[in-house]
């Protein structure tokens, strides 16, 4: 009976050849990303501290293969949202999710002084 070749992510770390170490690192990184794919969605908020307004406006799915910051900036611009919260989940159905990151955009704050409503 023949012996099967070891998968690339099982190459020993003790090998001194730098090209082997690079292949090992890439293989383990790719394996980890396949096993722990994260799913993201963002919620935009309208906020006015003077009038005690804190309203969720829209919810968006986020493409995890694209630049997160760029996507969030675009969503904030579209909704004129001073606050965008990004949530992450280990599952695509988002049954269990948690806050990942909050983005604040001063350029989209209401700018009122509390005398207007």
Please give a structural write-up.
By secondary structure, the protein is an alpha+beta fold. It is 26% helix and 30% strand. It has a four-stranded antiparallel sheet with strand order 2-1-3-4, covered by helices on one side. The N and C termini lie far apart (80 Å).
What's the SSE blueprint?
Blueprint: H1 18-35, E1 39-48, E2 53-62, H2 68-79, E3 83-89, E4 97-104
Antiparallel strand pairs: 1-2, 1-3, 3-4
Key traits:
117 residues, alpha+beta, four-stranded antiparallel beta sheet, 2 helices
Count of helical stretches: 2
Strand content: 25-35%
| Helical/strand content category | alpha+beta
Outline, from the CA principal axes?
elongated
Helix percent band: 25-40%
For the secondary structure, the number of strands is: 4
Strand order of the largest sheet: 2-1-3-4
Contiguous runs where pLDDT drops below 50 for at least 5 residues:
6-34
Mean pLDDT over the full residue set: 78
Using the CA coordinates, give the radius of gyration.
Answer: 22 Å
In short:
This protein has 117 residues and is an alpha+beta fold.
């Amino acid at each position: 009976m023949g012996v099967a070749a070891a998968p690339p992510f099982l190459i020993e770390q003790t090998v001194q050849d730098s090209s082997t170490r690079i292949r090992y690192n890439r293989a383990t990184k790719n394996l980890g990303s396949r096993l722990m794919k994260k799913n993201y969605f963002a919620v935009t908020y309208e906020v006015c501290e003077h009038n005690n307004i804190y309203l969720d406006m829209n919810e968006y799915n986020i493409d995890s293969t694209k630049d997160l910051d760029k996507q969030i900036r675009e969503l904030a611009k579209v909704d004129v949202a001073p606050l965008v919260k990004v949530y992450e989940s280990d599952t695509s159905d988002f049954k269990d999710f948690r806050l990942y990151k909050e983005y604040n955009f001063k350029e989209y704050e209401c700018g009122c002084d509390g005398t207007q409503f």
